[in-house]
Amino acid sequence: MTPQPLPSALPLTDRTRHRRLREQGSLARADLDAILDAGFICHLGVVIDGRPLVVPTVYGRDERWLYVHGSVASRSLAGPAPVCVTVTHVDGLVLARSVFEHGVNYRSAVIHGEARTVADPDEKLEGLRRLTEHATPGQWSYARRPNRKELAATTLLAVSLEEASVKIRTGAPDDGDGPDAELGLWAGTLPLTQVWGAPVPDPLLPPDTPVPAHIGRREGTRHG
Ligand SMILES: Cc1cc2nc3c(=O)[nH]c(=O)nc-3n(C[C@H](O)[C@H](O)[C@H](O)COP(=O)(O)OP(=O)(O)OC[C@H]3O[C@@H](n4cnc5c(N)ncnc54)[C@H](O)[C@@H]3O)c2cc1C
């Protein structure tokens, strides 16, 4: 199935319109795509029996849909249902002169949608492929793929990427030109980066089992 491309600008709806810290908002779909592509963990927010539940979970995507998966027994994966999905990258601490102006440099996305359970077997397999490849490119071709029993035990939910918002904060604290600049305190940012480590073989592996290139080459590279 060829996914329909979405408009290059994110829609301003009642749900996506920023009420606070509007200057950090972006309406560029390219910014949403970059945030989604930089991570593989989202927080899926659902309402179960009238109570909110937010669960961290792995995701994958195509141009049109964000996919999350899990056990058919998961209550958070019961579609159709209204959901809110967030993806967050922390780029550093913003350490201002005043505690009030402290903050975080970040990139974040919030997706509002109606989750649908993917029933079509081809879309389900393709969604699972995207999910696997999103976290570990090359792994779908390397590892054993799900069999019929495993597919039957797995729910795949699709959430449209249509209604989404983005916020990005970069740069220095905001009180450098205010009265607190006179305090003589240090202020600035403390960057945070995540770097992939060396692959650790399963102790049960035969010792001569090579690390696949698509896994080994990530060592020392930056995540996020
Ligand atoms: C790592 C991190 C730490 C943060 N810490 C704080 C904090 O300590 N205090 C604080 O006030 N704020 C913090 N923020 C910003 C926070 O996420 C909200 O944007 C902000 O608090 C405004 O919330 P609100 O309820 O007024 O949102 P509103 O502006 O009312 O939200 C309206 C709509 O804007 C969109 N939206 C809101 N926030 C975001 C977002 N972060 N990313 C993408 N879309 C968004 C959603 O679609 C939402 O439905 C932090 C953000 C990140 C990523």
TrEMBL record:
Residues 204-224 are annotated as: Disordered. Gene3D superfamilies: Electron Transport, Fmn-binding Protein, Chain A. It comes from the Bacteria. InterPro entries: Pyridox_Oxase-rel, Split_barrel_FMN-bd. It holds the Pfam family Pyridox_ox_2. PANTHER family: 5-NITROIMIDAZOLE ANTIBIOTICS RESISTANCE PROTEIN, NIMA-FAMILY-RELATED PROTEIN-RELATED, FLAVIN-NUCLEOTIDE-BINDING PROTEIN. This is Pyridoxamine 5'-phosphate oxidase family protein.
